[in-house]
């Protein structure tokens, strides 16, 4: 028998969470890029639980859909169990047990869907302590300055755990106790099944209390142990949005510290937010105001920030991204992005490429060393390696009904202020003249010019703007310097 892996984890998530004041079920509110319940499911999986079951009731379909999708994505085989109208944590666990194999033996850990910082390591340590003590029940406890409305741990004269008394049922003396029930436990499966059947609803709240199992197990001769946890955040639950923000901040700090210990520089942890699944290579520098979200991956020796938000992006080694927003975009090794760039889905910037200031890209494959440096929209574009796109170029990809593609060949050069009316193709090694509105293909080695030829009309200002400063300036400019007036010679001193 493995003494670290629980045989099953039951996650309680049937409660209503009314204090969130939300149409979204409480356990689906995210921190660090994952819903609260996702954190609980991953902790269970990380501890190597053979079986995981989530007990649901409030908004059950929505929560069940999430469990199925999230379990599939992270390969967490997870059952769901419906709690009936009998209330209480004891009833919830009973319903969870019904979803597990009837012959399941060993250690069952009970956790909660709204306690996101509980780690897989803590579940493992709890399971090990429980197994080594050959306990019937081991409850995770903490000693708090202010024990609030938590259930209190009542110990006997010898210091052994006797029972848990709920705050609402506690005497004044019991309310003085500062050791509290975190609501996380390891149970011997047989004891749990047997004693839950003996739990009544005879208490202040008329609920079936899971906590009653401890006293019953002890009365039946079992050992009831406590696993005292110093890291209070790990057992802190979310009841409202103030706690959601507080736990989100602590989770973020923990994620940042993990990256810093692994060799990532984070200049200002207070203004940096990194989701739990983001990966960052060694010696990368994260500058203030940066958010790295979703499944973003950053290579080594890159510089990200200041003021960068990347969601589900991939950034290569040595790349630099500053003051930019990106979503589902790829930035190649050694490439530079920003400042003030907007990389939309399907952007793929090649190695050592450049996306510069005030540039928006979408579904744009930009080759190695290619540059889109200034004031450009590149949508539905393929830009060959080494090509250069001049300032103010617009890839006009949308005709009002359909989107079309533009191809710019390798090492080609598009002059400034060009409109590329898609679909259109510029071959490898071609030029497009500045100010063109290109509608037709340009072949290899050609210069494409698509604009009106310039005409200069003599005397137009004198004829149409007589008496204006413009006309005076024109006259002065047209007068030869040899016949300069005293006024204009003063000007030239
Ligand atoms: C419970 C404990 C209390 C402990 C506290 C820690 C009991 C009787 N009391 O308090 O000693 O200090 O947790 O937070 O167990 N849930 C269900 N179905 C239910 C009721 C609750 O699934 O019928 C779930 C909730 O969604 C939540 C968890 O169980 O995730 C705890 O419920 P909550 O009402 O917050 O805890 P209490 O019962 O007040
Ligand atoms: Ca609670």
List the defining traits of the structure above.
39 strands; 493 residues; disordered C terminus; binds uridine-diphosphate-N-acetylglucosamine; 22% helix; 28% strand
Describe this structure in words.
The protein has 493 residues and is α/β, with parallel strands linked by helices. The protein has eleven helices and 39 strands. The strands form seven sheets. Strands 13, 14, 16, 17, 19, 20, 22, 23, 25, 26, 28, 30, 33 and 36 form a 14-stranded parallel β-sheet that branches. β2 (30-31) and β3 (34-35) form a beta hairpin. α6 packs across α7 (212-219). The termini are far apart. It binds uridine-diphosphate-N-acetylglucosamine and calcium ion. Calcium ion is lined by residues 237, 239.
What gyration radius follows from the Cα positions, in whole Å? Answer: 34 Å
Q: What share of residues is helical?
A: 10-25%
Strands, count: 39
Number of helices: 11
Report the average pLDDT across residues. 96
Shape: elongated
Strand content: 25-35%
Q: Pairing-aware structural class of the strands and helices? A: alpha/beta
> What gap, in angstroms, lies between the N and C termini?
100 Å
Main pleated-sheet profile: 14 strands, parallel
Q: Ligands bound here?
A: uridine-diphosphate-N-acetylglucosamine, calcium ion
**Any low-confidence stretches, pLDDT <50, length ≥5?**
488-493
């Amino acid at each position: 028998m493995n003494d670290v892996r629980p045989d099953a984890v039951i996650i309680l998530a049937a409660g209503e969470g009314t204090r969130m004041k939300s149409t979204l079920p409480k356990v689906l509110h995210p921190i660090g890029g994952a819903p609260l319940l996702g954190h609980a499911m991953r902790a269970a999986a990380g501890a190597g639980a053979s079986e995981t079951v989530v007990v649901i009731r409030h908004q059950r379909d929505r929560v069940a859909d999430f469990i199925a999708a999230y379990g599939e994505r992270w390969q967490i085989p997870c059952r769901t169990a419906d709690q009936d109208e009998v209330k209480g944590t004891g009833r919830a666990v009973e319903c969870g047990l019904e979803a597990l194999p009837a012959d399941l033996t060993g250690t069952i850990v009970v956790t909660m869907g709204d306690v996101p910082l509980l780690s897989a390591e803590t579940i493992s340590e709890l399971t090990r302590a429980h197994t080594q003590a050959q306990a019937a029940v081991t409850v995770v406890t903490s000693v708090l300055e202010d024990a609030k409305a938590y259930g209190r741990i009542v110990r006997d004269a010898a210091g052994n755990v006797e029972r848990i008394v709920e705050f609402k049922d506690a005497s004044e003396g019991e309310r003085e106790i500062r050791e509290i029930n975190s609501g996380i436990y390891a149970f011997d499966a047989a004891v749990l099944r047997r004693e839950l059947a003996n739990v009544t609803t005879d208490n202040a709240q008329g609920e079936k209390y899971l906590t009653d199992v401890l006293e019953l197990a002890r009365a039946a001769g079992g050992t009831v142990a406590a696993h005292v946890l110093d890291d209070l955040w790990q057992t802190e639950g979310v009841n409202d949005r103030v706690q959601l923000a507080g736990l989100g901040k602590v989770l973020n700090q923990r994620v940042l510290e993990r990256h810093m210990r692994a060799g990532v520089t984070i200049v200002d942890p207070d203004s940096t937010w990194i989701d739990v699944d983001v990966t960052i290579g060694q010696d990368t520098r994260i500058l203030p105001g940066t958010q790295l979200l979703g499944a973003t991956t950053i290579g080594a020796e890159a510089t990200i920030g200041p003021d960068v938000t990347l969601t589900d992006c991939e950034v290569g080694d040595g790349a630099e991204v500053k003051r930019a927003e990106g979503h589902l975009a790829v930035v190649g090794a050694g490439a530079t992005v920003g400042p003030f760039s907007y990389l939309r889905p399907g952007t793929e910037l090649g190695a050592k490429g450049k996306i510069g200031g005030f540039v928006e890209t979408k579904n744009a494959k930009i080759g190695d060393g290619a540059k889109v440096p200034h004031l450009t929209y590149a949508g539905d574009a393929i830009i060959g390696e080494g090509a250069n796109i001049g300032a103010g170029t617009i890839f006009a990809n949308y005709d009002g009904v359909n989107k079309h593609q533009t191809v710019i060949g390798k090492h080609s050069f598009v002059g400034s202020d060009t409109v590329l009316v898609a679909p259109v193709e510029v071959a490898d090694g071609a030029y497009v003249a500045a100010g063109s509105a290109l509608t037709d293909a340009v072949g290899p080695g050609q210069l494409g010019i698509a604009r009106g030829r310039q005409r200069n009309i003599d005397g137009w200002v004198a004829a149409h703007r007589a008496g204006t400063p413009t006309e005076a300036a024109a006259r002065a400019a047209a007068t030869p310097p040899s016949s300069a007036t005293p006024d204009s010679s003063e000007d030239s001193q």
